[in-house]
Specification:
Order of helices and strands: HHHEEHEEHHEEHHEEHHHEEEHHHHH
Radius of gyration: 20 Å
Shape: globular
CATH architecture of the largest domain: 3-Layer(aba) Sandwich
Oligomer: single chain
Number of strands: 11
Mean pLDDT: 92
CATH superfamily of the largest domain: Class I glutamine amidotransferase (GATase) domain
Number of domains: 2
Number of helices: 16
Structural class: alpha/beta
Strand content: 5-15%
Distance between the termini: 27 Å
Low-confidence stretches: 17-29
CATH class of the largest domain: Alpha Beta
CATH topology of the largest domain: Rossmann fold
Length: about 350
């Protein structure tokens, strides 16, 4: 999802730069004023031992978490790629590990699942790619049919567009979720991952999500990225979750929105991944291990302050640690949607 959004916005940014070039020196000074080149990227050589919250995390084993990814590589009969989102797996994976949980990775078909590699990777994402144990688990993901759900304290559904196709009607997903939930465990999902919950029924025949507060990738987010989403997908996730009895909680576009309803934890989009995983740890009865927030998270929170409290409070909350690229990205999104007031304030927040 990061990748699709960044590609769309890069095209818009190129158009904006071209317009600025026409305006001459003033435009050049405006564009360079963001000083984005001064923001260091994450080290591609990062390893788990480089992640302080993992290195200093819980040592005693607390149990196991099952992370489930899609096996679907393409969006329906189109030429558009699906698969699972790396960032929605890697970041949650290390939160679970840091808090004392062994993580197994499973998929409907088993084996190596199709992955979407995003732009804007952070240290935890690179660490996952450089982690031999994590890569062995991913490349040899467990077929869901072979999973014994009684072994797990929690199950976590990773997002990615492929989930819209192979998660909702998977009998093994329904079996696993029902067993974990009825056994007192925690069920979590992020972005498109809540598609796994659509048809899960409890022992009394009711849908798990009936009457539950939850969230997932919204119609607005989906249609901004894919104008033809209603034709590409068999349904839109927000619509279908609501149709199946859920009380859907919609937050601002592409910002962290995590909803907890007892032992059900859901997140709206990839930027909710950290908070979903840590809320799952809380629901499991533990205080999450302290972790230094990423620049991306600080930028997301800054924009959250803007939406909750207005531009003045957001200006006071500005931090040099915020990922200004992300804030500028939101300015571009707002501009493309004609939300000129938001676009103006966001570009001001993106300046050092």
């Amino acid at each position: 999802m990061h990748t699709t959004l960044w590609k769309k916005l890069k095209i818009a940014l190129l158009g904006a730069v071209a317009a600025l070039l026409v305006l001459g020196a003033a435009g050049w000074l405006y564009a360079t004023g963001f000083e984005l080149d001064g923001l260091p990227p994450a080290d591609p050589a990062s390893r788990p031992a480089d992640l302080a919250f993992v290195r200093d995390g819980v040592r005693e084993p607390r149990g196991r978490v099952l992370a489930v990814v899609t096996s679907t590589a393409m969006i329906g009969n189109s030429s558009k790629k699906a698969g699972f989102e790396l960032t929605e797996l890697s970041r949650a994976y290390y939160v679970f590990v840091a808090n004392g949980y062994e993580v197994d990775i499973a998929s409907p078909r088993g084996g190596k699942p199709p992955m979407q590699l995003d732009d804007g990777l952070v240290a935890a994402d690179h660490a996952f790619l450089n982690d031999p144990q994590a890569q062995r688990k991913l490349e040899g993901s467990l077929p869901l049919a072979q999973v014994d759900p009684s072994r797990y304290a929690a199950v976590y559904f990773v997002g990615g567009k492929g989930t819209m196709f192979d998660f909702p009607d998977d009998a093994d997903i329904q079996r696993i979720v029902r067993t974990v939930h009825d056994g007192g465990g925690v069920v979590g999902a992020v972005c498109h991952g809540p598609a796994a919950l659509l048809n899960v029924r409890l022992a009394d025949g009711r849908r798990l999500i009936d009457g539950k507060r939850l969230t997932g990738f919204t119609n607005a987010e989906e249609l901004f990225l894919l104008k033809d989403a209603r034709q590409l997908f068999p349904y839109l996730l927000q619509d279908r979750l609501s149709e199946h009895g859920a009380s859907f909680v919609e937050g601002p576009l592409y910002l962290d929105n995590t909803v907890v309803d007892r032992r059900l934890v859901t997140g709206q989009n990839p930027w909710s991944t950290w908070s979903v995983a840590e809320a799952m740890i809380t629901a499991l009865g533990h205080a999450p291990v302290a972790r230094e927030p990423t620049g991306e998270e600080i930028g997301v929170e800054l924009l959250g302050v803007y939406h909750r409290q207005g531009s003045s409070e957001a200006t006071r909350a500005k931090s040099p640690m915020a990922d200004r690229r992300l804030v500028l990205m939101h300015a571009l999104v707002a501009g493309m949607q004609g939300r000129w007031r938001d676009a103006y304030h966001f570009q001001r927040l993106a300046r050092p």
